[in-house]
Amino acid sequence: MASLDLLTPHLGKIKIPGPNQLIYKDECVYSFDNPESETGLYVSLVTFLGFGRNYVEQYFQKTDNAVFLHIYTEKKPVPEPEKTGDGPEKKITRLAIGVEGGFDPDSGKAKYTYTNHYSVVALPGFHTYPWPNPDLPEVVRKSVQAIIDAESPFKMAEMAALEGTWDGETREVSVHAVNLKQLDNGVKVPPSGWKCNKCDLTNNLWLNLTDGSILCGRRFFDGTGGNDHAVEHYRETGYPLAVKLGTITADGKGDVYSYAEDDMVEDPYLADHLKHFGINVQQLQKILSSLVVHGRKRHFTYITVKVI
Question: Which of 202, 211, 284, 272 is nearest to 241 (CA)?
Fold first, then answer.
């Protein structure tokens, strides 16, 4: 390991990124180099910009920012399980994608494991310090750990783009939202502890935005899910909009379904519609039952972290 004294002249410039700091650790800002490239990616501990090997020295010469987190992602194919005989393909039992019993969109594709290798590098000379390393100065350790823990701007932008989408399609504003009828029936909905009004289910619950009924969702093809009480209520009453409890955010958004339009929709007046039933969106905590998050998290590849 290189001498720690090489870091000392640069400690005053090193920064610890805050929660709103953009950290470009997915790709070089000047090229297509990324952590999977042969030489990896170098992330500045001052500006949090990422550079490929061909550009990091130029950046150092212009700025004198000398300390970097080096990220190299090792990609290894996962061996395919041996097939015995010419048996049939896995039977599809659910009309769904990417879930147990459903169609697997990755079937037949090569699968990989990804291992991240981290080290601290000081220029000039590419002096390397292993990570994790308790001997590194505190400001370096905190800066590096914050970079590793941070979401990349690319992933943040992707998740932001998914807001207001369903299965990748933009949700339309419901035609029923602007003049939605809401009954003055005295119903007040608590911020938690919900249960279906017609059965004992406590998950997959939908709040009807006209009368405040809390009812369970649809029954799936394999018998799981709800008991269809929410959709049955629509057939009986014609009340069109319902929001899934547990997906409501403090900025007044949530997973809203229009039974009349038979689709996920946007309700730009959701906060007001909830307020009618005594719900203050600021007091509700969004949980990971959002349909978007739930649908997407199945496809996130688990990344193990290995140090060098």
Answer: 211
What average pLDDT does the chain have? 81
Domain ranges of the chain: 4-83+90-162, 173-297
To which CATH superfamily is domain 4-83+90-162 assigned?
Zinc/RING finger domain, C3HC4 (zinc finger) (3.30.40.10)
Whether 4-83+90-162 shares its CATH topology with 173-297 is answered: yes
Burial (CB count <10 Å: 0-12, 13-18, 19+), residue 50: buried
Q: What is the pLDDT of residue 163?
A: 54
- The pLDDT-based confidence of 221 (bands split at 50, 70, 90) is low
Q: Residue 143: pLDDT band by 50, 70, 90 thresholds?
A: very high
Enumerate residues 6+ apart whose C-beta is below 8 A from 261. 172, 174, 175, 176, 240
Do residues 279 and 237 touch, judged by C-beta distance below 8 A? no
Domain 173-297 fold is Herpes Virus-1 (3.30.40)
CA atoms of 65 and 9, how far apart (whole Å)? 11
